Amino acid sequence: MSAPPATPVWAAALRLDGRLGGVARRWAPPLALAIPLCLVAAALEGVHSGFPSTWLLGVPRWFDNLNNWVTNNDSSNFFLHTIVGGFGNLLNDATNDIVNLLHWMTWVGVLAVSTAIAWLVGSWRTALFSALVVASFGVLQIPNGGPNGISEMWPSAMTTLALMTVAIILSTIVGIPLGIASAVWPTVHKLLRPLLDLMQILPAFAYLVPIVVLFSIGNPAGIVATFIYAVPPLVRFTELGIRSVRKDVIEAAESFGSTRRQVLRNVQLPLAAQAIMLGLNQVIMMALSIVVIASLIGAGGLGDPVLAALQTQQIGEGFVAGLLIVLMAMWLDRTSAAIGERARERTSTRRLTRRQLLGLWAGLLVLVLVARYGLGLGDWPAGWGFSVVDNATRALNWVTNEFTGIAGPISSFLTLDILNPLQRYLTDLPWWLVAAVVGTIGWARGGSRRGVLLAGCVVLLGLMQAPVGYTFQGTTSYNFVAWNDAMETFSLVIVALALDLIVGIPLGIAAYRWRVMDRVLRPILDTLQTLPAFVYLIPMVALFGVGNVAGVSASLIYALPAAVRATTLGLRAVQRDVLEAGQAFGSTRWQLLFKVELPIARPYLMLAVNQTILLVMAEVVVAGLVGAGGLGLDVVTGFSRSEVGLGAAAGLAMVLMGIVLDRLSQSNPDRARAAAS
Amino acid sequence: MSCRDLWKVFGAHAAKAIESGDVHLGRAELMAKTGCTVAARDVSFDVVRGEVFVVMGLSGSGKSTLVRCLTRLIEPTSGAVSICSRDVLGAQPKELREIRRTKVSMVFQHFGLFPHRTVIDNVAYGLEVQGIDRPTRYARASELLEVVGLSPVKTSYPDQLSGGMQQRVGLARALAVDPEVLIFDEAFSALDPLIRREMQDEVLRLQERLQKTVIFVTHDLDEALKLGDRIAIMKDGRFVQVGTPADIVGAPADDYVREFVRDVPRGKVLTAAYATQPRSGEMPEEVVRHDQHLNELLPVVFGAKGPIGVVDGTGELVGILDRRMVIHVLAGREELSTPEELASPGQP
Q1: In this structure, is residue B199 part of a structural domain?
Q2: pLDDT, tens digit (0-9, with 9 covering 90-100), for A346-374
Q3: Residue B336 belongs to domain spanning
Q4: Contact residues for A667 (Cβ-Cβ < 8 A; gap 6+)
Q5: How many domains would you assign to chain B?
Q6: Predicted TM-score of the model (pTM)
Q7: Does the ipTM surpass 0.90?
Q8: Quick one: closest CA in B to A349, which residue?
Q9: Is the minimum CB–CB distance between B99 and chain A shorter than 8 Å?
């Protein structure tokens, strides 16, 4: 009903009016503006401009001051002491209690109970898998201590298990009620949505430092970071599950005079159970995927050896702990998926009657008591295991040696011919030009408000920097030029993204066109999608050594499944009758692909770009752990040298960069989201 | 139950549109001026115990909205509804729930069954929300399942049943609370023709026994004629005609209704009264009742030698069956007079 948007004069002059197709209309104006400007800028290369070093807000100092204040008032301030401190203690106590319980249960007890639970919710296969995974926590060991001087992985695994349990419980008791509230009250939904959006586009690195400022290094900080990272899907799935209950079913319940609460309890929640389980499953997977990052802020467990190994380049040792994290993820994934399966099939036939169940638990208790006090067992016996490190190291060494011939040239080509020039070019671009280009594209994709917002984000990002020669209280001093670091991160993102699209879209098309290809790719993509982000760093560091190339290649692989999947999904969504119409006119297969299928799948391809960008950015930042430059490295440095202001300001810069990249690659968030679901 | 001057106007300024009288504008004009659409337009009717009142109309005519307004599943804009002499529209939430729980039940087009509950738990739902204990509600639900012939599938889930069986569950669920008023919203529209007929017979059978106040919404004229004691034809939110099936077919109120009933097999709906010349006096040899359908009378009409008398329910002679008129009526000749002019005694 609204009038068609007025065409700007210059656009009219370029004949970019309504008669052109939608694609041209949307893209031509921004490109018409942005491209010449970029060319001008490129011509001016050598004129070093970037972001003026004197323009700053003093953000690092705020955080350093805040940190100082928190340290000094920790015991006297009510909020810090009672609320934050109390909450932290609660999390810590809960974790310690669970750790103690797991140790008290002895290895026999842990094995028996986990297997019994897996059997109850799933099948004997789930149970067997569960038993094997738990046993592997004891069996797989590191000789001579590894980087942390610990050979047995069992205690670390139990710590991680306890941390995960607490994080998952916290996510559940916050996430499910929030999801329900969001489904029931539109206001809550409106308030939560942008927050969830933001939480999902942010790399976990962005909020590590503020969490540490509040909770200080330790288990509570790790749990809170895990919670923030993992809870959004649970809220979303809960809300979606409740909202997607069929209207007529709800109406039927209302017509019988159910109260709102009764409708929710009797109808909506039971019908949403499966979606909620799916959300919980996501929470578990995401929680396990940041175990290593959580270790960076003091959460113990299996993340520690991985982190140590990555930082000392003793890749083999990291490999064992990393493998155990992956196994734990698969174990918890399968078990929770089995519960979801159960919710879907509504199998009212429980495996056991109530009495049998009681008997089972009693039996397990007796078993634990006997193992503990009768046999005096404890953790997994150190002798019952073997070291896979030697083999792992040997395998990795072999890879390194065999492929150095290839990896070396690739690495130097990427570094010298692509990454470095690109980074130099981007860093040297005048800030106003970048803001203008970003603003224009943002405007073209989402209206003037988005354009202004995004241009503002770019400027704000530059303002995050610390003054030259910044020192704090005479002890810490560092150099933080947010602009340059963000551009370095951005250059890594661009390269990984470009490679992802070049490889991913054709793979997606191939998987759509040829069934064999689909069958080959499916299990590979499934595996890649369940692996935590840090896993990709291990082989890449082995192959390319620490640095940007390892970061880019890990990001490339990490984000590849999303690019392939979204492409295939989009092509599959093309309706059969449309295809038949295309065929009926005698199109060749390629004509069909380029004239019908790909154009119709365009929203999905855009979604592929959007998803890939966010994943790539997340991984590029994590790659700061292995020395990939930019904002990620700033955060890592912030921790390793306790430079709080640096880490926090870099985190904020990441937030801004995440918003810019997400909004630039999203033409219409609602439509894209609709396409995704 | 009764419904008076009920309006349902969709749009942000619905109340204003009624106040200003804008609602009497045409659909497009109203939309342009106020952004509102009218779903129910000044609708009034009464349904008595034991009667089946059919609301019939094409999709978009507002019939589903209308019946939802009766229990405020959709909030009406203005008007008055009373069920069992209780004011529905003025009821507070608690009282409204009480009315919904005990006085009215609904059977839905797509059944509206709870997929996560077994058949018996579906049927017992209305009792459950009333807070009735499990043994009592299961006993009652089992009784109803017996009535609709579903006892063997008590513990199945809805999606394990055929469409017809699912709607029997819907019917049993509606009956379980023993409501005064039953509302069927296109209840059988999603079913196959054969199953549909079966379900219609089931409703007639149950109605004979239970004598509920039934409001039945449908877009199927055959169904309306078969089930309805009275039928309301709805168009653009308005009742264009309310009457017995014979009224509707024999004396359509306007061209819209006429077009609607054009293909109806008239002999199955129209009665002797529509072909009777009023006359009093001597009782002829051959006699038929005034409410017999013309189809069944054809053998008599063409077999009898002398005049055929038409008597009312008490056996009193009301007139003579006119053979020429029978043919006219069956052929649907438009110039026929209304039955009121033809036959003085009242309709069934």
Answers
A1: yes
A2: 554 556 778 888 888 888 888 888 888 88
A3: 267-342
A4: A26, A445, A446, A606
A5: 2
A6: 0.77
A7: no
A8: B155
A9: yes
